[in-house]
Amino acid sequence: MSNDGLSVFISDEYGPYVYQFDRPTGHRIRSFKLPDELAVKNLSPVGSTEISGNTVGRIANKGMEGLAITPDGKTLVGVMQAPLEQDTNSVIRLVSIDIRTGVTHEYAYQLTTGSGVSDIVAINNHELLLDERDGKGLGDGSIAKVKQLFRVDLTGAADISGKSGNLSAFAVPKALFANIVTALNAKGITGDLVPAKIEGTAFGPDVKVGGVTRHTLYIANDNDFLSSVNGVDNPNKFFVFAFDDADLPGFLPQPVREQEFLECGFDFF
């Protein structure tokens, strides 16, 4: 959401596309021009056909899975879910978009143990959290393995626009922030009950815990509309984590003008 509360930006894992919508009317008001190397040349509604028919661009159904906005409201940062057809060594691409000018830059992110990245959220104007995961866990009928949040810094990162192949040398610095599987296991949620598709991350409002003000981070899963798997309930869930400034130095919440919410007819709960 924009800082004035009047626009919503949405990315699409197919195109990939990034659109801007006007909140009061719901009208799409802008389509951002993304780098050509992200798109496939031959489209097909059948994933295997699309993959076999292209040598460059996104993998079928694995386009720009996540989108973040910096707290200053100036920049969007999207993340491709998986490596492009022309890239190797498990490197995926981050794409920054200047909201005012539309100018884009691309950066390399080296996967650690996950098969892809499902979401991204801004810590401040140059650092982000990425949700790196595999497909194991509830929903897949297996034991959850990799659901991790990594912190990355785009300061001084190399722009890989126009490059392809092995981009590992250009990868942005990253550090583990949280191991979701370990954290949920510690709360009695066994690996078979940890959702396979942890795909949503968002910072929430501050809360009081034991009289101390703490920040919150919401984690959500996608159950693919499967209410149960092998007789086990498979709902969409939110897991809420509390953290302090010392846990995430440099954290800067995005300011959103409440007055604009009220003018748009939205209620607070």
The SSE order reads EEEHEEEEEEEEEEHEEEEEH
* Alpha-carbon Rg, integer: 19 Å
- As residue ranges, the low-confidence spans are 260-269
Structural class given helices, strands, pairing? mainly beta
Tell me the strand percentage band: 35-45%
For the report, how would you describe the main beta sheet? Answer: 4 strands, antiparallel
Strand order of the largest sheet: 4-5-7-8
Integer average pLDDT: 93
Query: How many beta strands in the DSSP annotation?
Result: 18
Distance between the termini: 18 Å
Number of helical segments with 4 or more residues: 3
Helical residues, percent = under 10%
Shape: globular
Q: How does this model look, in words?
A:
By secondary structure, the protein is mainly beta. It contains three helices and 18 strands. It has a four-stranded antiparallel beta sheet with strand order 4-5-7-8, with no helix packed on it. A four-stranded antiparallel beta sheet has the order 9-10-11-13. The protein has a three-stranded antiparallel beta sheet with strand order 1-2-3, with no helix packed on it. The model is unreliable at 260-269 (pLDDT under 50).
In short:
The chain starts with 6 loop residues before the first strand and ends in a 6-residue tail after the last helix. It is mostly beta strands. It contains 3 helices and 18 strands.
Features:
7% helix, 4-stranded antiparallel beta sheet, 269 residues, disordered C terminus
Topology of helices and strands:
Blueprint: E1 7-12, E2 17-22, E3 28-31, H1 47-52, E4 64-69, E5 75-80, E6 87-88, E7 91-98, E8 104-110, E9 116-122, E10 127-133, E11 147-153, E12 165-166, E13 174-179, H2 180-186, E14 198-209, E15 212-221, E16 228-229, E17 232-233, E18 238-243, H3 258-263
Parallel strand pairs: 6-12
Antiparallel strand pairs: 1-2, 2-3, 4-5, 5-7, 7-8, 9-10, 10-11, 11-13, 14-15, 15-18, 16-17
